[in-house]
Amino acid sequence: MKYAILDRMDGTPALMASLLYGSGMRLLECCRLRVKDVELERLALRNRAGKGAKDRVTVLPETLAGPLADPSNGCAGRTSATSAAVPASSSYPSP
Question: Could you read off the pLDDT of 72-89 as tens digits, one per residue?
């Protein structure tokens, strides 16, 4: 019951909400996230020019590494994670 909102979401909004919840990113940082800012090997997200025009690195939850790395969800080759065409039937585990 503690993830009731995330459980009812799907697609790109669910991925973004899970990133916000699991990584501590700010909304604008999530919207500006680029494919090259995701470091799957280190489970890290690089936030460039965030609050105060500073760069920072935050954690990428293990449960979200799979959906971000999966080329079938449309993220591969995109300039932004928010523009990815994620199938509506896919669901993302809660962080």
Answer: 665 544 444 444 444 444
